[in-house]
Sequence to fold (288 residues):
Amino acid sequence: MATDGNGGGGTAGQGGGCEPELSDSLKTFGAVLKALREEADLTQEQFAPLVRYSAAYIAKIEQGKRFPPRELLDRSEEALGAVAARVLKAAARSLTRKAGLATWFRQWAGIEEEAISLYSYECAVIPGLLQPEPYIRALFDRRLPPLAEEQFEQQVTARLERQRLLRERPNSTFSFIVEQALLDRRLAGTEVTRALLSSLLDVGRLRNVEIQIMPLVQEDHAGFEGPLYLAETAENRWVGYVEAHDCSMLITDPKAASAMLQRYGKMRSQALSHQATASLLEQMRGAL
Fold:
């Protein structure tokens, strides 16, 4: 089943706030981690700070819903002991042999949940974290191949659930650059567009969120290579992510991530300011 991605259609085997399909290898790793944690007589709430992740994130790894980050393996020895750490690393090796689309996005979803900074540039669809429910439903209603009703509702619920990140992580910074053309398109009609504009204005008032519109006419535009996502980890390491038609890629190479960060920085200077964006959104809503 296709699951939620950052944009509109979602990609095969991906998950955003949506829980991806569980692979046997991820479920096995999660079961091993849980057994080792319980053997050490630690609850998830006790174990999580020892490896510097949230209890909710550890729970998802143990359920096989998130790909375990490399740092978890490195930190597990201090929390669980040397023997347990070797067992955990052995279990993790089976995951690398089954890398694929689901693996890519599970890794990104975990990074996203723990990121201290998250940057997004979109030119095809409003970023998933900013989509109000009417817009989400309009997107999934247009997805091809069509979703079954149960899948449809799961996708909608999942994406709305994922948006809690914006308010649950007030100390994380979120930056979004969105092409004006996506708003002028009026996808699904006036009412959906009005809901979208109102939602963008509301979310843009959060102190940890910055939304910038890239104007229709911009002769100096650094975003011609397409959408991109960037996250800064708790270790101040930058990771990139891109997705397109039913495919996605996690970018961990420091040079490649640095190049993406440079492009994003340039686009921030080319887009309307946060204040000018809010004024434009108000004007567009008033013109509907």
The longest strand covers residues 173-179. Confidence is low (pLDDT under 50) at residues 8-22, 96-102. The first helix runs from residue 24 to 39. Residues 230 and 240 are 4 Å apart (CA to CA).
